[in-house]
Design goal:
The chain is of the alpha+beta class and 301 residues long. It is built from 3 helices and 15 strands.
Length: 301
Amino acid sequence: MGVLIAALSLIPAARGATDFCQKTSQDLLVACADNAQGDYFVALAKCDNLSDQTARTNCRNNASAALNRARRTCGEQFDARQAACQKLGPAPYVPGIDPNNFIAEVNNPYFPLPPGRTLIYEGQTAEGFVHNEFIITRKTKVIQGVKCIQVHDLGYLDGALAEDTLDWFAQDKQGNVWYFGENTGELIDGRFVTLEGSFIAGVNRDKAGIIMKAHPMVGDFYRQEFSLDNAEDFAEVLALNATVQVPAGTFGNCLRTQETTPLETILLEDKYYATGVGNVLTVDRRTGDKLKLIRITTNSQ
């Protein structure tokens, strides 16, 4: 019970009306602590099956250290969610998805998705050389009654396919671009090793988020996806007048956003969007790694 009690001690006492956002983050904190403790006891069980006493002691010490790291992660995730709640407000997240309020195309100036266009990005990172293809296909998928455009996103690391994702987007009549889900897989040596992050709005109480607002303003803070403990990206608008120079060209009056997620609290990315093109540059604020738009091509998908 130690981990759970420690987690509960971090939760502030409720005051007044229900704060749904904070209550959600509190529940996730308890779940995280509970999972950490469960993993700890599984590790101990494996240690107790070792006949060598020294190996058994080292194993138990490693399990304790892993538990402490997991507890710190739970606390960091909780702090990140609570900080987001201060900007999002106390209301429950209930996006109004009315199929009649969506149009057939995505033509938001900062996030246009013309079928047949492919945006190619490259950059040297700490992990290796990244090549990414953002393929806007002619395929669609109906989610919650809304016809979504399908994007095939391929990520290569040092020439090997490392991530294969299908994304689904749709635009409402007001001009907001919604993100309705993704089917994403990470690969090692050509084999899928995880599908974490995959979700579809309307399934398992997961919900669509806004990937791009119709009229972004500095200070806007919003959910890009809502799949608790699986996909929880946030975006904040930092500027509307950035200038970006990448191999594909020089772009002025770019929208600059900052993206974070409580699932990876060390992740801090700035993304730059040019009108008529979309994302032209991504900068990892922690490492300085950059993913630049190299060129725009056409595809037959």
